[in-house]
Amino acid sequence: MNKRWLKDLFGVDKPIIAMCHLHALPGDPSYDPQKGLAWVVERAREDLNALQVGGVDAVMFSNEHSLPYLTEVEAITTTCMARVIAELFSEIKVPFGVNVLWDPKASIDLAVATGAAFVREIFTGVYASDFGIWNTKCGEAIRHQHAVGGENIKLLFNILPEAAAYLGERTIADIAHSTVFNTQPDALCVSGLTAGQETSTSAMQAVKDAVPDVALFANTGVRLANVEEQLAIADGTVTGTTFKRDGHIWNEVDVERVRAFMEKVREVRGE
Question: Which of 152, 48, 51, 141 is nearest to 103 (CA)?
């Protein structure tokens, strides 16, 4: 394992992966059948365009509005996400990834179907979460990745997931060390409590000290005011909320907020 793949894939040091949050899909409680799936596609197109014009290094499509989330999603969710990405495919100008919240196998399936380069998911651990007891089966997910021809897809493991607490007395450093030994992830992600909540720099530093050769992403809460501090530790960020109008997660992407953020990032990277 090494971090060289970051530069190979994204073309920069310390890449910024921007979230393209899809609106509620068929089957989701908040889906609006009057607007329909075509409306979801158009909203995603607008956000994708704003993110790319603003200069992000990559995008990741997720079903952020599918609350409350499932740990084994229904087929309609993955199918509809595939349609959205397919309709936008010719307009995607940067590397892209996917995250079907919160189902590793579905995320891998979607990546294979759409040609996504990477997946972010909860692959390891057992948690007490807002969604109930959350048990992962990493061995099954990785075997599934290879069975469906997704062995080249980069896997970003979220080892401090949102809205959940690890069952058992283990430090984040111990979790990082054993996760890397047992599962060989391409990168580790560390999160705050929910989307938009700042990632603990002390937690990230503990992970970096434990597994310095593995790529580390700050997964939530990176904004203009703290991006320099976060990137002093992390090898990149997964960023969504701060790019939205007024910094509110459910608003549309504000291209000027993206531009300001990426200008600061380029300064931090010495570009």
Answer: 141
Cβ atoms of 159 and 176 within 8 Å: the answer is yes
Going along the chain from its start, the domains and CATH numbers come out as 4-264 (3.20.20.70)
Q: SS3 of 246, please?
A: helix
Q: CA-CA distance, 222 to 210, in Å (whole number)?
A: 22
Could you give the C-alpha distances from 46 to 39, 105, 180, 244, 247, in angstroms and in order?
11, 28, 37, 12, 17
Neighbours of 86 (CB within 10 A): 13
Query: pLDDT tens digits for 243-254?
Result: 999 999 999 999
Q: Which residue has the tokens 């060390």?
A: 177
Edge to edge, what strands does the sheet with 164-166 contain? 132-135, 126-129, 164-166
Q: Is the pTM of this model over 0.90?
A: yes
Q: How does pLDDT run across 52-96, given as a tens digit for each residue?
A: 999 999 999 999 999 999 999 999 999 999 999 999 999 999 999
Cα separation, 267 vs 271, whole angstroms:
6
